[in-house]
Design brief:
Blueprint: E1 7-10, H1 19-33, H2 40-43, H3 51-59, H4 70-88, H5 100-109, E2 113-117, H6 123-130, E3 138-140, H7 153-162, E4 169-173, H8 176-185, E5 188-192, E6 203-205, H9 213-222
Parallel strand pairs: 1-2, 1-4, 2-3, 4-5, 5-6
Helix pairs in contact: 1-4, 3-4
Bound molecules: 6-O-phosphono-beta-D-glucopyranose (BG6) and magnesium ion (MG).
The site of magnesium ion (MG) has 10 residues, from loops.
Length: 223
């Protein structure tokens, strides 16, 4: 018998809007202030990862910074967030990635719940700037979990709140750590982006314009 999932849980940065690029630019600026160069290839491993874990990975590029006191690290994390907050000031509803609002509308028509599963402490603010909060049934952000992606807690917290079994949820992600989190939660994973980084996803599209509800439901039922 054909099954319809009861909830779609969306990552925010890089799925709903291109804030993944702003995170990259903010980290790049902070890294340069520390005399470290990072590129887009390195940035792939920062996607979906919490602010502090991302900082640790950058500091690991320079062994002399490894033993930096925790207070210093916290200062650097704030500094990165200041760069990021400056960049997101420009966000407007036009910055919702193509195909996302159409998908939200179809999900509503089909009585499928919409949740956000984000590692960002800025998630609520970004969703407000995008004018999307009225579509969303529940937001899980960094403040609501103890373990970040690739741990499944971000996705299971959303499903638990909505009271929906994990096997009836679809998770959508642009990061390898996020796909791992969805898979570990026992949900159907949709990867958006490059096949090389997202090969563990149950279904992959190269960009958000290709997110078609009928096709996702078809793939969900092939599982
Ligand atoms: C994730 C991003 O959504 O949030 C990461 O993919 C980012 O790049 C993380 O580091 C934490 O975000 P914030 O806004 O709390 O620093
Ligand atoms: Mg992301």
């Amino acid at each position: 018998m054909k099954q319809t999932p009861k909830a779609f849980i969306f990552d925010l940065d890089g799925v709903i809007t291109d804030t993944a690029e702003f995170h990259y630019l903010a980290w790049k600026k902070l890294a340069e202030e520390l005399g470290i160069t990072i590129d887009r290839q390195f940035n792939e491993q920062l996607k979906g990862i919490s602010r502090m874990d991302s900082l640790e990975r950058i500091l690991a590029l320079n062994p002399s910074l490894k033993d930096m006191p925790q207070k210093e690290k916290e200062k650097l994390a704030y500094q990165k967030n200041d760069h990021y907050v400056e960049l997101i000031k420009t966000i407007k509803p036009e910055n919702v990635l193509p195909g996302i609002e159409e998908l939200f509308t179809k999900l509503k028509e089909n009585h499928i719940k919409i949740a956000i599963g984000s590692a960002s402490k800025n998630a609520q603010r970004v969703l407000e700037l995008l004018g999307l909060t009225h579509y969303i049934d529940y937001i899980v952000d960094a403040a609501k979990v103890t373990k970040g992606k690739p741990d499944p807690e971000t996705f299971t917290t959303a499903a638990d709140y909505l009271n929906i079994p994990y096997g009836e949820c679809v998770g959508l992600e642009d990061a390898a750590a996020g796909i791992e989190a969805i898979n570990q939660a026992g949900m159907f994973s949709v990867g958006i982006g490059d096949k090389v980084h997202l090969s563990a996803a149950d279904y992959i599209v190269s960009d958000t314009t290709l997110l078609d509800l009928d096709e996702i439901l078809k793939q969900f039922n092939l599982e």
